[in-house]
């Protein structure tokens, strides 16, 4: 719980979102694993647990799998795992 409080306090000033908080796994590691093992978001979530708890990391992982980004400085809308895969038209929303 202390980690979540620290993240929340950081969120109120300048912030960096770089990991799944529930599993404490950096997006960079998860994205590298997904690319190495050719996992889509659903398979990554099933293997690593990210996106299966609070769900806030799903949008970041989906975007990161498409763009390679692993560090974010803005909030993305919460998404569900069953949303259609990221496509180039989504970039207008980014």
Order of helices and strands: HEEHHH
- What is the residue-averaged pLDDT? 84
Helix proportion:
40-55%
Number of strands: 2
Secondary-structure content class:
mainly alpha
Strand order of the largest sheet: 1-2
- Domain module tally: 1
Count the DSSP helices.
Answer: 4
Low-confidence stretches: none
Q: Which percent range describes the beta-strand content? A: under 5%
Major sheet description: 2 strands, antiparallel
What is Rg? 13 Å
How far is it from the N-terminal to the C-terminal residue, by CA? Answer: 30 Å
| Principal-axis shape | globular
Descriptive notes:
This protein has 94 residues and is mostly helical. The protein has one domain (2-93). It has four helices and two strands. It has helices spanning 2-11, 27-37, 41-48, 58-67, and strands spanning 19-20, 25-26. It has a two-stranded antiparallel ribbon. The longest helix has 11 residues, at 27-37. It is globular and about 35 Å long. The chain starts with a helix and ends in a 27-residue tail after the last helix. 22% of the residues are buried. The mean pLDDT is 84.
